[in-house]
């Protein structure tokens, strides 16, 4: 995996040009991966066995569960920084802010539908990333909290729309019936639209103690992470690639960089902008987010074939059923694991210039994303 | 109709509190209408005959057609201000700006779907209202053009999602097959989402020569006009009221104020904010927009029962088929006509404090909305 060169991703044109439509230029950045030895596709059973060994070798389980066991490198980290307490504290702040942001008002049905999915108890990784990035560059939690909530609203919207019958047609999400199963397809569609619109209202109206110039810049970044150059671009290419036998690694990377990494990038970049970060800080954190964003999806792909629906809180194995291209399918479990490790190292390298105590939450979040169990 | 009192709509709490969640408080404002004599429901044939007489009495036909005939009051207006030329010129600017804003880039399919509906040749009433309001308060067209395009993107998004099988299930829009008929339901859903997100990116990134404070305020207003306190609120209550026999006028007004008037209000208010209007000017124009917004829907309801699909460029009579509550159904054609006239007068009263030459485009737009034929 040492032959991997992801540095091209960090081209100066991405680094320095704020709010350009640069993400689409990432399309061919990972083609060097295709030079790797790609292991023969393994069976699901083999994959499960390989991945189980992968996780046990790191011995870091999901955060926000009571059986965390931290060993080795993680043990050192624990002494200086209690990640679990940090996540619980921040996730509680986010949950309270979300609960306050979308009240159960008239018309009740749409607000009920919005709140049903928004408050369904996700891990709040994106909003916590946003707040952590804000605090890393010297800002206060409150400066980033409306943006953090907006990002979670958009993430929730994408899940509601993704689950609709005309998309993934999913019945289960976060262990509960999907939005359209409870409220009907029409209301679920509108609840997604309303969450998307309200995300922008919330960041524009509720962000305090930040200059309007930084708020406008943050809104531009947030919007870019969602649309046809961001999240939606990944979804469309994903849909088009289903059932195709010749999907290449560069297409898969395009899908994931847009479908998953874009919003994680938005989370971190918004926090850095709103917290008052310099352009250089914002762009370093952007690169950090791109690496962990892709890593997030590599791990997601592995989890999909190695965990049960009960463990994931959503339908497992659906990539296999939909015959979707995934990292395990293209690289095999072992190479996927190595790729995730490499992405995690590269991500953390971006943080080397920051105060390491202040960077501890982001370092721990990267490790959490790498080693999560659901 | 003189007993109508719509002034309560103009309560000071609406007038002076920017970016509050005030629209939901309009719910009971039109209840005085229920005191009117409500004529017995007429047949569709009778309604068509009555409305035909209504329109011929005003003799103002649709703009952007070659057979405009302006008589009476409108003739005087024509001498000072050529509305048709104005609309053609502004709509051309808007069309060019929209064409430039959403280019056919990768991934092609989603951009093609976005452009298919966005450039399908609507009348561009909303963006022209935005530009006209900007110019009325002393701004330049360019200051409002990104916002004007954003509003048209959002209007287009709402049409794409409205036409989906899980909503109105419509096959025809602006005389062409609906988006999902051409691109499939999944891509149509995503094209709507992408347009909604890109609307915010465009206004945030492309608005020039306007202070960031005004841009943030405009974004807050735009978002509010779409979400669960705006457009979506109207759609949800509309869906809930289908097939009910006891829908009251106040519910109908809630639906229309939110489903139609909110985005027209957003159009005018954004133009006024970005053009540098004072708070008083912005709020007068907000009231103007609310009156014409409701009028727009009263006229739409009448057109639905009096015109053919060919004349409208969309499926006619669908309110009757869906057993939707409409103004003609509740008030009869004659009272609906009087109500539209009253709303037009009240709207134009809001413009009395402005330079009348500069206000000519908005006055003409109000008349156009009142007397349009499709």
UniProtKB/TrEMBL annotation, chains A, B:
<protein>
    <recommendedName>
        <fullName>Geranylgeranyl pyrophosphate synthase</fullName>
    </recommendedName>
</protein>
<dbReference type="InterPro" id="IPR053378">
    <property type="entry name" value="Prenyl_diphosphate_synthase"/>
</dbReference>
<dbReference type="InterPro" id="IPR033749">
    <property type="entry name" value="Polyprenyl_synt_CS"/>
</dbReference>
<comment type="pathway">
    <text>Isoprenoid biosynthesis; geranylgeranyl diphosphate biosynthesis; geranylgeranyl diphosphate from farnesyl diphosphate and isopentenyl diphosphate: step 1/1.</text>
</comment>
<keyword id="KW-0414">Isoprene biosynthesis</keyword>
<dbReference type="InterPro" id="IPR000092">
    <property type="entry name" value="Polyprenyl_synt"/>
</dbReference>
<keyword id="KW-0460">Magnesium</keyword>
<dbReference type="GO" id="GO:0016117">
    <property type="term" value="P:carotenoid biosynthetic process"/>
</dbReference>
<keyword id="KW-0808">Transferase</keyword>
<dbReference type="GO" id="GO:0005737">
    <property type="term" value="C:cytoplasm"/>
</dbReference>
<dbReference type="GO" id="GO:0004311">
    <property type="term" value="F:geranylgeranyl diphosphate synthase activity"/>
</dbReference>
<keyword id="KW-0479">Metal-binding</keyword>
<dbReference type="GO" id="GO:0046872">
    <property type="term" value="F:metal ion binding"/>
</dbReference>
<comment type="similarity">
    <text>Belongs to the FPP/GGPP synthase family.</text>
</comment>
<dbReference type="Pfam" id="PF00348">
    <property type="entry name" value="polyprenyl_synt"/>
</dbReference>
<comment type="pathway">
    <text>Isoprenoid biosynthesis; geranyl diphosphate biosynthesis; geranyl diphosphate from dimethylallyl diphosphate and isopentenyl diphosphate: step 1/1.</text>
</comment>
<keyword id="KW-0125">Carotenoid biosynthesis</keyword>
<dbReference type="InterPro" id="IPR008949">
    <property type="entry name" value="Isoprenoid_synthase_dom_sf"/>
</dbReference>
